[in-house]
Design a protein that fits this description.
68 residues; mainly beta; two-stranded antiparallel ribbon; 4 strands; 0% helix
């Protein structure tokens, strides 16, 4: 397993594990506001990656996120 911290510049109320793009991994996401922890579990041997595409979630003012 791999763990990473995701820090947002503005608090979000709708950031969820489904907003993540995963390669060769499953994920769990915990946290709220501006700080989240993602735990990645590899599906098979090889490279694991996680990204967040632009427009996946919003901040409190309704602004969409930029890509990670």
């Amino acid at each position: 397993e791999y763990t990473a911290t995701i820090t947002l510049s503005e608090a979000s109320t709708d950031f969820a594990v489904g907003d993540l793009t995963l390669v060769n991994a499953t994920a769990t996401l915990t946290g709220s506001g501006t700080t989240y922890t993602v735990t990645l579990t590899p599906v098979a041997d090889g490279t694991v990656s996680v990204t967040v595409p632009a427009g996946a979630f919003t901040d409190g003012a309704g602004n969409l996120n930029t890509a990670s």
